[in-house]
Amino acid sequence: MEISWSFLSWTVLTLSLLIHFLWPKRPRNFPPGPRGWPMIGNMLELSKFPHREMVALKEKYGPVVGLRVGASNIIVILSADVAANFFKNHDAEFADRFVPDVTKCRDFHKGSLSLAPYGTPWRVLRRIGTMEMLVGRRLNVTAPIRRKCVDQMLFQIENEARNLKPIHVPQLLFYTSFNILGNMIFSRNLLDPSCKDVSGLCKAIKGMLELSAVPNLADAYPWLGRLDLQGLRCRMNNALDEAIGIASRFVQERKEERQMRVEQNRPKDFLDVLLDYEGDGKEEPADFSEHTINIFILELFVGGADTTSVTIDWVMSELLCKPECMAKVKDELNRVVGPNNKLEESHIDELHYLQAVVKETLRLHPPVPFLVPRKAIKDTKFMGYDIPKDTEVFVNAWAIGRDEDNWAEPNCFNPERFLGSKMDYKGQHYEFIPFGSGRRMCMGLPLAHRMLHFISGSLLHCFDWELEKSVTRDMMDVEKMRVLTLRKAEDLQVMAKKRTTLKK
């Protein structure tokens, strides 16, 4: 008995010491949050839908919640007021990015704009993107490219409708967005059967998106990265090898054309912009390395194709659930565009109700519920709290868009709330930030704005839509996280009926 009690005493003492040292230590004066478990911290609080779970934590701890996940300090921003403070007053102090472990594969993060540390290389890439690629004058020049791709989509729908086949909306939208980007980047029609490597590139991009969304132990415990316990690095390496190989071949072909001075009867595309770049060779690079060009190209696909297609999928879903809103959009399109004319990008500014529908969809269903995480560059003060260097910051755009403090009936789809309002998603109205805000706001916003309205408006103007008989409206509003975006749980499949004469 004496030995047993002695053993028990030592066991209790050992366990107590282990718990003391292994229990996650919250930094002093850190934002409040649930107490974590030994080793894992608050990992259990991060369910399949963490953007929803965080709303419950706000009720208990307030609009800034502090978490400890493995070895990482995390704060979550859950209100427009706190977001405004963050972006207005602390943007520079949190200008770095958290770099997920899988993005270190093949040094993807070293050529990335979205993940680049705040500094000169990031500024150069950002300037090229915003001033040379996605500026209004270049988007105006490339409008015929998007017209061609959307026409291709409309003819495909027309053929399916003629044969009474249901339209698989997510797939249709992804390939259309993918093709628009391919035309703008490479001047290639990626849906042309004669265009080699397209299926491989598309598959690789989808693989990268899916792997980037898998919860990774190496993000919580960086020292586990090399062990690759979940096999994510291996799979990401394979996807990147395929994607980089294809992008590299496209780049090499273009370089050879330029050396041979092959005359091109086309607008200058994004690849031309990257190859034409000349820096001072001192603070800025003299030119872009092949690796940087390849990664920049892949990032445009990763950041653009899925988010755009997912948002338009939600637009269609919400309107199918709200026939009265669908009728208003169609009436406006008939009035502004004309019943037998095609919608053009030049019509967008006059389509106020369509703009309201897109805004309301983005409010309820931001494609990325948490904005891309920021990281503290140094120890800093925020909202009266002490935030250690390298703390990760997640802004919950989904929760902010549904906050009853800022929105009447926040969970209802009501486009009328935006009619007559000057509120937009350009980063200055902090209750509505689906594209982020501040110096690391989404670079692709100008193109996304055009694509969202042009594609969704064309679908609505050219066809009448109805759900398949087996689908009810009650089945429509169910979310499911797929890849990095917030998709519907069930893919939308609908029947289309042609309304207008489409010109070939």
TrEMBL record:
Gene3D superfamilies hit by this protein: Cytochrome P450
Binding locations of heme: C442
Domain of life of the native organism: Eukaryota
Keywords for this protein: Heme, Iron, Membrane, Metal-binding, Monooxygenase, Oxidoreductase, Transmembrane, Transmembrane helix
InterPro entries in UniProt: Cyt_P450, Cyt_P450_CS, Cyt_P450_E_grp-I, Cyt_P450_sf
Transmembrane segments: 6-23
Molecular-function GO term, any one: heme binding
Cofactor(s) recorded in Swiss-Prot or TrEMBL: heme
Family named by the database record: Belongs to the cytochrome P450 family.
Protein name per UniProt: Cytochrome P450
